[in-house]
C-alpha cells in the first residue's frame, strides 16, 4: 500500500513539474515583449509609411505581468488587455482610447491591423514582428529605456 501511494505521489509531482516548467518557459519568452516598441512598418495601406505617420509614429508598451498594453496610435492614446500563450497573441478585446480628431488614415490603419494580429516574434533583439497568419503585418523597434 505504501509503495502504491509513494509511486502515485511521485507521478503527480512529475507531471506537475512538467506543467509548471512549460508555463514558466512561455512566461519567460513573453517577458521579451516587455517594454515600449515604436512602429516602423505596417503592411496594407497604399500610402507610404511616412505619409501615414508624418508627425508621430505609433508605439505600444507591453506589461506582460499584468497582461496589459498601452500606447499611442500617432494621435490618440490607448490601453487595454491582451492575451498571449507562447507565440500566439490576441488584441481583440476592446481598447480604451481617447477620441481626439485625427487627420489621415494612420490611426484607423494601426488599430485595424492590430486587431488582425494572431502571433508575434522577436527575430532580433530590438525588433518585434506582429504577425497575421504567417505574414508580418507590423514591425516595431524597441525604444530605449
Protein model, in words:
The protein has 145 residues and is an alpha+beta fold. It is built from three helices and ten strands. The protein has helices spanning 2-30, 49-52, 106-116, and strands at residues 35-42, 59-63, 68-72, 77-81, 83-85, 88-90, 96-97, 119-124, 127-132, 135-142. The strands form two sheets. An eight-stranded antiparallel β-sheet has the order 7-4-3-2-1-10-9-8, with helices on one face. A two-stranded antiparallel ribbon has the order 5-6. A hairpin with a 4-residue loop joins strand 2 (59-63) and strand 3 (68-72). It is globular and about 35 Å long.
SSE run: HEHEEEEEEHEEE
Shape, principal axes of CA atoms? globular
Mean pLDDT: 85
Q: Which structural category fits the helices and strands?
A: alpha+beta
Helix content: 25-40%
Placed side by side, the strands forming the largest sheet appear as 7-4-3-2-1-10-9-8
The parts where pLDDT drops under 50 for at least 5 residues are 8-27
Q: What amount of the residues lies in strands?
A: 35-45%
- Please summarize the sheet with the most strands: 8 strands, antiparallel
Radius of gyration: 20 Å
Question: Helix tally?
Answer: 3
